Amino acid sequence: MVKKRACIFISGNGSNLNNLIKKSREYNFPIKIKLVICNNAKAIGGTYAKKNSIPFFVVDTKKRDFENKMISILKIYKIEIICLAGYMKIISKNFLERFRKRIINIHPSLLPKYKGLKTYSRIIKNREKKAGCSVHVVNEKLDSGNIIVQKSFYLQASDNELSLKRKTQKLEYLAYPEAIYKIYKNR
Ligand code: GRF
After folding, report:
1. For ligand 1, what atom is nearest to the CA of residue 16?
2. pLDDT tens across 94-114, in order?
């Protein structure tokens, strides 16, 4: 099978990146990770790229043309799909045009509920019964593109932000690979 050439965008811990790197070693997994891009030089996630000898680029988002730089790096590595995994920057319209329907994201809530930031604290505050994660296509509107995979669980009365995060991320490690499989299943 010819695997698609993927780039993972990160900003922080990179636990989803680490999980996808592991998954991509499986024979049938549809993508191989050819590049990691990060907007934060101090991101712990960068160590996973380095440890696995995956080219790793830090972009300076204070520079006006940083996205053009990203686009040229993505071209050099012939990237076919971009997976956002905790990437904390909004993707511009121009960038989206270049990679239409080829950028996906994972979000720690049952979208369309709790778009945006601070999802865990809002979910706990609202005493939600259910929580979970969503993998979706990225479009112009924040956390609003078509949902590819969603996974949920019931909250316990004793759950707090920390336990909610732990449980949600555990599901994310299943949901992201599953979404990638689903995208390429019939292609
Ligand atoms: C994930 O929980 C994801 O839902 C959100 O950012 C977090 C990134 O975590 N978009 P990590 O960097 O993969 O550990």
Report:
1. 13
2. 999 999 999 999 999 999 999
